[in-house]
Amino acid sequence: MAELPSVLLRDPSSPLTATYVPSAGMVCTSLSDDGVELLGQRRGLQAYLSDGKTLGIPILYPWANRLSANTYEVDGGAVTLTPGVGGVRTDPHGLPIHGVLAAYAGWVVTEQSENQLIADLDYGSQPALLASFPFPHVVTLDITLADRALTVETTVTATTSAAVPLCYGFHPYLTIPGVPRSEWTLQTPPLHHLPVDDRGIPTGEVVDWPAYSEMLGDRTFDDGYDGVPPGAVFALAGGERRIEVVFDQGFPAAQIFAPGNDDVVGLEPMAAPTNALSTGAYSTAVPGRPAVSVFTIRAL
Where would one find coiled-coil regions in this protein (predicted)? Predict the structure, then answer.
């Protein structure tokens, strides 16, 4: 298989670089600090292309995490999702997961420089995508690498009179090379923890989660949270390295993922909690007022 074109961004003030592959869903495959890789590679780009198995920093769009059923209601009408059609993928319980844009090839780069990349996806022009999420819009990613930080700005612009639900997210797979996973420290601000049922769907219970700073040890996470204030800082640290994920704006929810079978931790900005597309617990991009969200990954 021919190698897909990639875009290498360079921080003008540090040895930090970032690599994006626009034709593979605008996935960030690398965030490297003078040759030291800070993103988990998981099963690699080929598995993302063939099976939707994520790596690096994928966008989960137009919904992140699971939905509780293969149908959801909007404005009195029902939308039916068909697994295997239009990019719909399911988890082991058969629930739709992580939207329809895994490795999607339709992104168009509109601007590119040494340390900035801007790309658009005209979602409303793609009937196969609209079948699963019938809200015409354009989504724009504006990515900048500067001052030892990768900043990702997402803009959702409605292109008809229909408001666009905002349920997407990003999944940075972070790693601390050269330090055992058990010695990594996970830090979070005060949050609201959202317990889930045995299918991974929030039960509706909300539990206060105090500010957290603990060594990971053998603990695992696959937990959702909301109540994330603008500017909240999540962090993973080990040895002399610290990676921060700043939820600058537009990400009131979070997912923390720390599996026991891979040395990665996901500190994931979410525009809405898990299953929001089914429950209606989301904000919208309304006509004439684009919705902007921003997160930043700082390599310290």
Answer: none
Q: How far is CA 73 from CA 65, 68, 298, in A?
A: 18, 12, 38
The answer to whether residues 216 and 258 touch, using CB atoms and an 8 Å cutoff, is: yes
Distance of CA 192 to the CA centre of its chain: 19
Q: What's the pLDDT tens digit per position in 76-89? A: 789 999 998 989 99
User: Which candidate, 52, 67, 62, 57, places its Cα nearest to that of 129?
Assistant: 62
Q: Is the pLDDT of residue 43 over 60?
A: yes
124: three-class secondary structure by DSSP: helix
Residue 59 contacts residue 198 (beta carbons within 8 Å): no
SS3 assignment, position 263: coil
d(CA 17, CA 149): 10
Where does the chain have alpha helices with state H?
Answer: 45-51, 127-130, 276-279
CATH match of 7-299 with 2.70.98.10: yes
pLDDT in the model for residue 51: 86
Dihedrals phi, psi of 64, to nearest 5 degrees: -105, 150
- CA distances 185 to 61, 209, 234, Å, are 29, 17, 11
Contact 270, 221 (CB under 8 A): no
Closest listed residue to residue 70, CA positions, set 52, 89, 92: 89
- For residues 225 and 254, the answer to whether their CB atoms sit within 8 Å is yes
CA pair distance 44, 53, nearest whole angstrom = 8
Looking at the whole model, is its pTM more than 0.70? yes
Strand partners, 288: none
Q: What letter does residue 97 receive in the DSSP assignment?
A: B
- Do the Cβ atoms of 230 and 244 come closer than 8 Å? no
